[in-house]
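User: Show me a protein chain along with its predicted structure.
Assistant: Here is one chain, sequence first, then structure tokens.
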Amino acid sequence: MADPTAAATPVLEVSGLTVAYGDTEVLRDVSFTLAPGERLGIVGESGSGKSTAVSAVLGLLAGDGHVTGGSIRFRGEEIAGVPEARMRQLRGRSIALIPQDPMTNLNPSMRVGDQIADALRAYGTRGRAAVRAHVVRLMTEAGIPEAERRRRQFPHEFSGGMRQRVLIAMALAGDPDLIIADEPTSALDVTVQKQILDHLQKLVDDRGMSLLFVTHDLGVAADRTDQIVVMHRGAVAEQGGPAQVLFDPQDDYTRELIAASPKLVVPPRDGADDTGDPVLEVRDLTRVYPLRGRREELRALDGVTFTAARGRTTAIIGESGSGKSTTARIVLGLETATSGEVVVDGTSTTSSTRADLARLRRFAQPVFQDPYSSLNPTMSVERIILEPLTIFRVGTKTQRRARVAELLDQVALPRSVADARPGELSGGQRQRVAIARAIASRPELLVCDEAVSALDVLVQDQILTLLRSLQEELGLSCLFISHDLAVVADFAHDVVVMRSGRIVEQGPVDRVIDHAEHEYTQALIAAVPGDQLTRV
């Protein structure tokens, strides 16, 4: 007969947890409880303490990080400060982690099946045939089709969503009581995100596990958890059920998160019906890549045609592989089309002279997804912003330095950051530097390729507000590449929906979102998380 007290014992009980790195306190008096079968979400921006709390639970605090106070109890056992040997027994078998980025957590030189097999052997599974059968069963359970064949493939042969499923299979290998999912879908398209979260929820329900879900997306937490803990600056700002947190928030920071979360609602815009003359025309664009070692071809773009109006934001939306970034690269002249034509400001890029191309490069400037990888880490902010001014020979040295100061003001950065390097800045500050560099030569068209997708909702909201103000102040046109339809609804005037290299629907953003005609657009809309947030 089962012990009736066992079901009442919390799976995880964190009380008054305080953590420091060296002498610096980074977590203060954090408390929360996770019951058997319950789903608890920890929400907050980068630096709020979410991942530090998870690392403390797992006994994986980096460097000189250490618990200075409080308690962490797993199924009634105190695990804060226990010997590493005991934590190794618990990690994987009892408490499993699904990390954020599968490409940095999977060995690129090992077949995925072998990596799952390693986890199984570590947890005691023996015998070649038994391990192989268990690998196939776990991959199938994690939602990977043709598991017998795909276990022999390498991580690069899987899509982002399928790689995340491999990590889920590895987490299930020890048959844990608690799964900690640390931003498991933040890098995925909304439709893939929904598939992964649906499947993870089914696994939690079927196996009776508890789930600790870490995210910066309040919409995802509201949809997927029973309790929400909001963290801010290393402390718990608020906690409660999703309905209470969303509809009756008690803390100002929670209200900020709710206000900043993108919603699938198109706000009224001045001049929304004034389309103006075209700043960009894409005509029957095709891009074909030969597949190495095969006689086949990959048709990345297939007859793409659309027009972007001057002074407006035209968004291109679609899943990974839809062709949106390929289109952006061709518009910027970073890649050549197989056929078709791109006309920028009345000039065709396919038949341009060298002088025309130089003018077009100044006319259209990019802002990429990851500002850290697109900014030279060895250069100061001043040198980064000066670079396009020097390349395009804009003004004298004195005038260029004055222009840098002016640009820092425009993107709301203190002039003191001019001497800093990218590694010394936050993600939001780095993206502001990238925007300052992009507008330095006074372009008329910004091409933003997933420019806010890597940012927390508060920082994302700040960057979108900045782009709006610059668009109004400078008369900029914007080609905005995104996989997030809620962001597009908030920011764009017109939208082009792409799938598998083709346009399936396009038009004013309010018409496409409120009256979507194509089933793929409807699926994108249905996959946007946070239905409850639209009513806040």
